Amino acid sequence: MRTPARPPARAYFPAIVCAEHDSPIDALLALSVPRDEAMDLVAASWQSGEAICLVAILDGGRPVVVLRTPEGRWAACNAFFSDLSSTPEAAGRRLNKLLKRRRRGYVAWMPAAETRPEEVPGFATA
Q: Band of the pLDDT at 124, cuts 50, 70, 90?
């Protein structure tokens, strides 16, 4: 008997860096997230421990993400949810195609959910 394939635990996506900041609030503000909503998003992320990735959808539907860098700073990035992958390698290949002229990017992830992205912890609409 064949067992059904288990869905991946994470969904990976490319994120291109716009700027780096010392705090997640500053990074969200740099992406044009309103201050009150940025503070609410950061405060909400504290419930699940220290977040390393905060996602928001701006008015007009543009997805953005704030990521903790390996150096401990916060990268304000444009997120590409249309390129969700089940492996970091596939997301990395797509990221390499998106990068131009000395731009930097990261492969980010969020929990893969059978629900809408708005229902995933760390996800907020701005």
A: very low
